[in-house]
Amino acid sequence: MTTGDRFYSYMRNLRKKRGTIGEEQAYADVERSFHTCMAEFPEPLRHDLYHHFFDAYASGDRGETALFGVADKLQRIVDLFAMEYESKRDDLSDDDWIAVREAVDDNAHELDTKLMTYIMRFILGRGLI
Fold it and tell me: What is the value of pTM for the model shown?
């Protein structure tokens, strides 16, 4: 099972139990799952990325649609950092890619060169460098 598959599995389980847990717990589960799947990366990078997507997609509307919208975007990030990103399914905004670029730049000293090159190719392809 890939890292992206594991995150997807966590979110599928969250959908099943969504009616039995409160909204705050659901958001905490998404955050915990994201940090678990991204555990090999620096905490500041994980923190910055999670909060970018939370602020961009759920800070105003905290309903179920926003919850799973955040989860969907975070799954793209998990896939990206696992080097399994599907560019044909790229629905990240320029602001999202800029947040990724900044997080990678800020943590470059702790990231693998191969991974940074992989991610920067997508950012360069969007003309954001």
Answer: 0.89
